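call fold target=Sensory/regulatory protein RpfC
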Amino acid sequence: MNKPVQPQHEDLRISQLYSYHILDTEEEEEFDFITDMAAKICDTKYATVTLVDRERQWFKSRHGIEATETPVSLSICATAIKTSHDFFEVPNIKIDPRFRDIPPVLGDPDIVFYASYPLITEDGYALGALCVADDKEKSLTQEQRKGLKSLSAQAMRLLELRKRNFELKQNQTYYHTLIENTHGSPYRSLDDENQTFVFLTKGFEIITGHPVADFLNNPQKSFKDIIHHEDLKRVMAVKAEAIRENKTWELQYRINHSSGFLKWIDERGKTFYDELTNKIYIDGIILDISFRKNEEALFKNIFDNSQGLICIHDFEGKIIKINVAAAESLGYELDQVIGKNLREFLNEYDYPMIERYMSEIKNAGRHKGILRLKSKSGTNKYWAYDNSVAEFGGIKDMIVTNSVDITDKVRMEKTLKATEERLHLIAQTIDDAYYVYNVNQGKYEYFSPNSEKVIGVNLDFFSGGKNFNDTFVHEEDKLKCKEAAKNLLNGTAFNIEYRIVLDGQVRWLNEKAFPVVSQNSKETRYAGRVTDVTQRKNIQFELENTKEILEQASKTARVGAWEVDLIEKKIHWSDMMKEIHAVPEDFQLEFDNSLSFFKKGFNRNKASEALDLLIKKQKQTDQELLIVDANGKEKWIRLIGKAEYKMGSCIRLYGTVQDVNDIRKKTSELIKTKQQLESILSELEDVVWAFKLPTYKMLFVTPSVERFFGVNSNECMQDPEFWTQFIYEEDRYIIEEIGLELEENNGYEKEHRIVTKDGSIRWVCHIGKVIFDSNDTPIRLDIKMSDVTKDKEFEKQLIAETNRANAASKSKSDFLANMSHEIRTPLNGVIGFTDLLLKSDLSHLQQQYADNANTAGKSLLNLINDILDFSKIEAGKLDLEMVESDLHEILYETLDIIKYPAGQKNLEIILDIPPTLPNQFLIDPLRLKQILINLLNNAIKFTEKGNVTLQVVPEFTVENNCKLHFSVIDTGIGISEEQQKKLFKAFSQADNSTTRKFGGTGLGLTISNLLAEKMGSHINVKSEEGKGSTFYFTVNTEVIVTQSRNELANKAVKRVLFVDDNAEVRSITKKHLESWGLECYTAGNGFEAFKHLTGNLDFDLALIDYHMPYVDGIQVISQIRKELKLDASMLPIFIMSYYSDGEKLKTPMIKLKINQNISKPLNYADLFDEIENLNQDVAQNQQPQPLQEQKLSGEFTVLVAEDISMNMLLLKTLLGNILHKVRVIECGNGQIAVEKYLAHDVDLIFMDVHMPEMDGLNATQNIRKIEAKTGKHVPIVALTAGALKEDQQKCFEAGMDDFLTKPIHPASLKSVLEKHLELKDSGDHAIDQESNSERKLSFNKVKLMQLIDNYQPLLKELLITSRDLIKKIEAIKSMLTNLDREGVKANAHYIRGASQSMAFDVLAELSEAMEMSALKAKEETLVEIFGKLESEWSRLDKIILEEITNIADE
């Protein structure tokens, strides 16, 4: 059932329903009486008072029904109240499409009839309905309706009464609680002299202390008696005036409480005239405000007499009230302050502060701080305040300040702060920490500010009672520190150095402490200073380490020290000195022989000369000389000498001797190596240089720099960036790029141009690399620059050659495209007209001629396709389209294509696939089929007898990956090894005789192998002359669906006999049959079949091959029927034959009652279905013939632009054959096509691409420009003989929607027509029962008849009623004139709902578009949609009238 349409204001209706507080209440007799009466009056089995909320329909009362509620989606009542606010009746629910499928109709209770009157509130909302129902079809009489309506009104009155009672009880409870809980006492009194009370509450007694009974209805006792005598006259005068003028009064006055105390009363009242009694009453309330009054008095006393500074001001800063203390603090009288603005008492530089104060207290409600004010004398006053926002005197948002004058405190604090800052500054400038320790109190009284920094310990430690010595002092120094502390107690100061350990780190401290005795106090204190000497100690340790290191270094570097005392004439040598000279440790050199170890001659003379200069002229010496050690070995040493003078005379010589013998050897070797390297570098063509990092000091540059740049190498050594001056102007950006790549990658490689000194431009390859040391620190940049000008020139030539090759390739493609077009255009006529000719009545000879011509045309087309495919692959323009594909379907379609030529040669085609082969794989179905067809056609072509097998073997790898092994095996002529080498070469065959005998271009295998290579494989061949060939390849793919066929559901077939002379076919088919759960027996001929059939086994089905040697299948079946007496009911039989055998088997099949003719090669999917659907009672007398092709229904106008009259005639003929009714507009070129398009309303355009004057591409572009303005779009299909992908792309870019390649195949044409034409009805009305269920129809009669169970009377009534929709359409037209968008939307909604119910598909769609666009779309858009809607109604109305007439005639 359709969900009830939600009316507007549904939320308000639900809200009204909830306000009655009726849902889920107990049963009530009053409502039960109404349902009982309704059932009796209407003579029905069921009656309910039903209320409907969002989710359910709930029964307040029910007669004959057990359920208390049902979901609203299954509610008839919900539909009733949302459809009509009046009587609602359904005589027979079962034929009403709105309710036919809901449970109350289908189940228990079995409701057939339903009627109701809604329960409508005073505001017009339907809460539910009084419903009656029965299990028989009926209709209420006028009297019954009248009675039901009265009962419905009575039920609604009960609901209203119940609601008012509920509200009254709520109000009574509310007012009672209000009166009891209020702090006042309401009253009512007479308007007499004493104003006698007639109503009082207990609150009166609480307020006055007097019993209520003393005053209530007692004219002798007046409230005036307890009013304070000072207030009585005023109170009575105000009340008398208000009563006289009929106004309200508000009074505050005192009364005498029964206890003798005074109480403050707030009274408010007004006179009330009672129309029923014709009396005037005084109504009022008295409130006890004593507490508030007392608080006000107390506040005033505190405010006036408080020593605190109290001020009240608003958010503008205006001072409302201030106490005396606050005014005097500023030196003013009260009247000089009140009314002034707070800002008048501020210094100008404090204005921003007061603005921030106002903002913050407004947001937070409270604020604390110190306010600086300017006193009358001009001095600053400081108030510490704690302010809050409060209500004062009935005025909200007042700021009450509570302050204290802290001026003196602030001034004192400033003085102290200045003193502290000075002391703090002094303490901070001293690196030491100072402390004072009170011995008597056992605590530290003072630490200087930097103490924590110096000592390294948080100062809180010293107040925690722990011992510093035990906690932090190094273990080796603890005893020293304890002894010092002990001596200090005895009055002895100390100065010690010790270590402390903090977080594992050692720190050295120097501490000095001494006792301090106060003259005025008996307390003893220690004063101490602590200095961090860690750095000094570390330096000391480092110096000691350095000395040790130097001594070690001396040994390592073989440096010895010497000294000559010229006064004492003594020579001192270090141990290393003795080791260098190879003398013993106790050796002592004599003063007179001091130069004896220097080699005689030049070296000893140089040493003597150096020492003389050192003594006489203080000239230091540093030179390398040869010595001869004690063992007679020559050594190179470095002699360094200095002199010490005293009073102008040299008194001492000292210095070092270093053993540099090894260094001299290595230096010599390095010099030799350097010379060799310089020799090599001088021959280099490339320039290599390096500079040091980070100093950018040039280290070297090869001599080739002079040849390379024409610049001197010495100049380059002065400037590490010498190369930048030679960069070609347009390439100077390369400098910045090199810098960036060095930063990011520590190297670069660039190609750019340079201009040498002689002005020549050269291309260079420029490479640089940063060199790092062992610590990853960059130390050097190595650079090489090579001349690549010749390489660049070669590259330029290569590009030119490539461009020429590409141009040649394009010329070839253009030639192929033109060749394709020129050949396909006449082929279009040849194949098209011979196809038509073959379908006409021809003599046998004519049939043969036409068939030969058609075959020749198609062969030529295949040849062109092969050439184009080869060209695409060769040019790399053929791409695979990997899609999810049904492999079984590909294989069967492939075999369907080749089975006819195989049948003509009586060749057995065998499909060998395992039963478990999955269906869905990720492959290119078109190209796989192309390979298989080519291989199979070749096998058939070269096989004269025997069979051709297509074998597929899956090999599953990981997850869903799979290898598919394809093999095509034949029993043909075979191929020699020599011939196999030529197989995959383009335009070649095994030998020339093959071409002469079998024909072909020699491209087929080449193309197939190239396609296989694109799939990641290649085609292999195994063959032997005279024994046949096997072509095989493998495709890597992905399994999408692994499910294979299940067992047969037809349990009537259990045992099958399969008869075929081919053992391979028997083996393969047996596996498939057994995988379906069948028991299969096989036979190789009729004799074996008879043995099985005459045995003890009963067979449910026999499959028998027609082509068997000696005794064919028909003969075997004839013997089975006649001799074994097994008719079709006892043994159903399928005969298996070639496709070409169908005609000659018709008569035998009828005669022998053969159930089915199964074409070979066997399609196992079809065989499965045939066995599954086997009906043993009905024999199929002939091979199933395809249904006669039906013309596509509808009436269309098609524009055809074609300059060749033959092609025009062919396309017109094909259109007439496919479409039921078509008008063809003929155009000879693109210009005429554009003109005809403008003049006619066409449904589809066929546009030839190549035409004179204006071609199809330009014509399409012109049409699309026109449509851009009109908003219209007519599909355009390209007609071209160009078969290349580029041709198709040009058509789509021009704006065409589809593409047909010449010659045009009828099936392709039909597919295009079905895709682009909205098929219309070709019969008497717009119903097309054969059309696709997804198509939109003006009147979908099939759908409506299904909804109403094919009930013709109801159909007629619905159709008659539907014609009222014209009123809604006219209403929309009127509303569009006034642009009443809400009205348009509402009426469109109505039409949509009705159209959906009536199966007016197109009208429903258009009205929905109108509804969705009504509120926001432009006016012209709405007018356009309405035009379509009005046009559709005009068409639909004719259909409706015709349908009504047809029903009447029936």
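return ok
The mean pLDDT is 83. The CA atoms of residues 1245 and 1276 lie 5 Å apart.
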